[in-house]
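Quick start: read one record
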Amino acid sequence: MIAASSSDDVGRAAAALVAEGNPAVVGVATGSSPITAYRELVRHRSLCDDVQLWLLDEYVGLPARHPCRYRSVIIEQLARPLGLPDHQVHGPDVDAADLDDAAERYEEDLRRLGGVDVQILGIGRNGHIGFNEPGTPFGSRAHAGVLTETTRADNARFFRDLDDVPHRMITQGLGTIAAARRIVLIASGPTKRDAITTLLTCPPTTDLPASALLDHPDVTIIGDQAALAGVLDHSTLVEHT
């Protein structure tokens, strides 16, 4: 675990870890927490020109160029500022007639590519990673599903109002995420405190999807003081941190 004094320091630490070893495939998440890391990666041009960016998840039902579509977000925040062509940003086919088949193809495409070298993650206030909500099996692979109202409400800040937030998605499964060779989980702000505290002080449980990562051999959690307030002085952190 790395404790940073500010969200900017979180971004600097995360970017350094992501760029380590010149990864060929980087799994990318959206949301508030990874933004400062992306800024640092862009500022130092830390990723190679042929890096492949692999989306953690994607909404179903938004137009292809909608600014809240996650592929659009990653292109805008990371790929184009790095000078990477759009075709190096990969996402599931959320416009497919058969979403279950699209999720299976996304899993297979990632497997053929050789898997993710380093996966960037945020964490939801209910402990979700990607769009894997509480109750998702730890061994799950990429799948289509329905967003909980908690997650829709949390994401409404990126839309005009709650009614505009999609109800469906495709996400990498917990088993897919855990197959990444390295994982960098970023947490910023007080809304993440309860999830991080539970993650770092309690045994793994499907009630907290992020706890699927506790047995991963190379996972680093980076947070600011607000996110880590519940564990910085805790004497019973699980060994995996």
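The chain has one domain: 2-179+192-225.
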